[in-house]
Amino acid sequence: MFTELIIRLAGALDAHGIPYMLIGGQAVLVHGEPRMTRDVDVTLGVDIDRLDAVLRAVGAAQLTPLVDPATFVKETNVLPCAGGDSGIRVDLIFSFSPFERQAIDRAVSRRLGSLDVRFISVEDLIIQKLVAGRPRDLDDAANVLLKNPGLNRTHVEQWLGQFEAALGEPFLVRWQSIQ
Asked: Is the same domain home to 111 and 175?
């Protein structure tokens, strides 16, 4: 079910010229160990000014918005949807930060069925998980690091340092704690 939904969505986003990357639990499945996940999280490489194109891609992927898109996306930068018959939750996240934009540029392709699907890189996934900081996210980051010891640590430390300086949170301490 998940694979078919992801292939439909990735194909529709590609067809509508919308850059994207899968993040969250689906990315952990690719870069770490299998774990239970109930949804699909996707960062889009567009701002809300491309909402019409995103809605066309949503329709082509046979997804149904769960909210009034114009109002909700303007307030949250997220478009929650459900996947056709499966009912799988899909959150489309409109990007706006330099980190998200470069992470989309660094995304890696993985073959699913007959399509190359874009997933967040190992390094950027760890950064996202450490910034989120929930226990599950820290466990995910540690697991992904364990499975990918050759990752670019400098990239991770540079971004965590920037986030720490901007937000005053101990992101570099979190990074040290999972090594």
From this structure: no
Structure tokens belonging to residue 83: 């996947």
| Shared-domain flag, residues 96 and 133 | no
Q: Which residues pair with 89 in a beta bridge?
A: 39, 82
Tell me: do 24 and 54 sit in the same domain.
Answer: yes
What is the per-residue pLDDT across 39-54, written as a single tens digit (0 to 9) for each? 999 999 999 999 999 9
Contacts for 174 with CB less than 8 Å, ≥ 6 apart = 130, 133, 138, 141, 160
By the 10 Å C-beta count (0-12 exposed, 13-18 middle, 19+ buried), 34 is classed as: exposed
Supply the range of the domain harboring residue 107.
1-120
Q: Where residue 97 sits, what CATH number does that domain have? A: 3.30.460.40
- The answer to whether residues 91 and 8 touch, using CB atoms and an 8 Å cutoff, is no
What does the DSSP 8-state code read for residue 67? S
Query: 58 pLDDT exceeds 80?
Result: yes
Separation CA 142–CA 135 (nearest Å) = 11
DSSP three-state, residue 65: strand
Residue 133 and residue 130: Cα distance in Å, rounded? 5
